[in-house]
Amino acid sequence: MNIQWYPGHMTKTRRLIIENLKLVDIVIELVDARIPFSSKNPDIEELSRNKPRILVMNKSDLADPYTNSRWISWFEEKGYGVITVNSITGKGISEVDRTAKELLKEKIERDKQRGRIFRPIRAMVVGIPNVGKSTFINKLVGKSSAKTGDRPGVTKGKQWIKIKKDFELLDTPGILWPKFEDMNVGMKLAFTGAIKQEILDTHTLSLELLKLLSAKFPDALVTRYKLTDIESKTPMELLTEIGQKRGFLISGGEVDYSRTSLVILDELRAGKLGNITLESPEDIEG
């Protein structure tokens, strides 16, 4: 299953990031905690390599807590400040300001020595589509904060968002990268909803998901869908059984595979199959 999606506006977003990186002190990249490596944009890795970086593992409440801790250690070893966040509840959000100031403490001290006491930290927030960036920013900003308006050098229509008197954000649209070299990366992005649903073959995608879940998380499937003899069944047999048990039938008693496929994908994305992380550091390092 060859999954590629790079609409034209993402080229514009890439240019926007390049143009505005020189205006910021630090880059905050959101990734999906269920696929922290696959949802990390290698283009942003390259573009922001000379800036301090905070990696925000969003949707951490949907991921496996133990695997979260292993990913934190893995990314910290590579020089990132790492935070696990649930942008909906706000859990972990308060760590963003503290981590940014910790990573920038030498620069802040240099600014003070030069008399630039009140210069705010400026951060760019980046991430792939549907990683929860807007929810994250809204929670970070809070009701009392307001946009500061356009500044010189910022592309028209983009605004700095004031978090507090000493912290400002520059938001950017969600961006993928032009080509997924590893098809497993594209698949995981599709599983978790980062790729536009309309371009996907959801039936085939659900079979690939069932193949992965039955191998790595069989208990989650058994618990959610009340399946039996899961080890001996093919993904198609599992899909059929789930459709039958849910009563997703069409005329003649045939399973409605389209509806069943969509429900399985939606329930994974909503966390209804439990706390599942689809990749670990060991998977990446081989």
Automatic annotation (TrEMBL):
Residues 13-178 form the CP-type G domain. CDD domains: YlqF (cd01856). It holds the Pfam family MMR_HSR1. It is found in: Cytoplasm. It comes from the Bacteria. Its main location: cytoplasm. GO terms for biological process: translation. GO terms for molecular function: GTP binding; GTPase activity. GTP binds at N58, K59, S60, D61, N86, S87, N130, V131, G132, K133, S134, T135, G174. This is Ribosome biogenesis GTPase A. The lineage of its organism: Bacteria, Bacillati, Bacillota, Clostridia, Lachnospirales.
